[in-house]
Amino acid sequence: MNPGNIAQTAQAIRTNVSKVIVGKEDIVDQLIIAILTSGHVLLEDVPGTGKTLLAKAVARSIDGEFKRIQFTPDLLPSDLTGIHFYNQKLAEFEFRPGPLFANIVLADEINRATPRTQSSLLESMEERQVSIDGTTHQLGRPFLVIATQNPVEQQGTFPLPEAQLDRFLFKLKMGYPTTEEGIAIMKRFMADSPLEQLAPVVGTAEIEDAKRHYTGVKATDELLGYMLAIVEATRKHPDAVLGASPRSSQALLRACQARAAIQGRDHVLPDDVKAMAVPVLAHRISLRSVQRMRADAAEHVVAGILSTVPVPADAPLVGRA
């Protein structure tokens, strides 16, 4: 599959999701990128902004299985992974898979679960498998976790530590719709939910094929140096206690390759780096306590770095083959 075919697959998903979701094209593209790169997404926003609807629409578009898990303090790791139980009729133990055995899993309010349960989910995200009673079970292909958390209500929560935040490819925010989008949403859902009529436009096999081929997108040494300079700048920033990890530079490269592929290009542009830097890097930076009081402080730090790190002089221009 070449980048042109990957772009067609992405456009089919994008168009199909737009039948349900009004606007949010950038968020949809970033979810497609996360699927292609085998990444996961932390979606931070207040309730009612369409997070569950978006996840369901993407799952239906790729003909994937969707599961939603409501995270609570009493949720156990086995509630996610599944259990072995004794079947009295068959007189033997059977495995009952948990909700992680799906293609797209919505981990709703992940910060309400205990660190033990959070760690169980994050281990599954990294390994794409679960081990229960000495037996390893493979998870779905593709496998995308969309974890949500409410940025306003913090009472009774267990914030994700930096080591676990680093496991997410993106941290995104849905945001409120504009007035025009709000009217369009009300009209669209006036009679019935369009999600009920949404049909798949690609299959999971096509997604897996695209995942194998997007890495063929090229990035010059100069652009690799540009990415690394941005990552290193987060470690030297005066407001940062902890900068972006080496894993983040790999994540930034993969995200840029996938973004180029879904746009039909076989090479990475500086614009890809600028578009992906904030959602890939901001949540991987730990700021000093004073700066943490501002919700979007990390995003401003990365945006400031982008404005100061020079773009390579011989970087390919938009549209150049």
Automatic annotation (TrEMBL):
Matching entries from Pfam families are given as: AAA_3, AAA_lid_2
The AAA+ ATPase domain is annotated at 37-178
Against SMART domains, the record matches this protein to: AAA (SM00382)
Q: Which PANTHER family match?
A: METHANOL DEHYDROGENASE REGULATOR (PTHR42759:SF5), MOXR FAMILY PROTEIN (PTHR42759)
Q: What is this protein called?
A: MoxR family ATPase
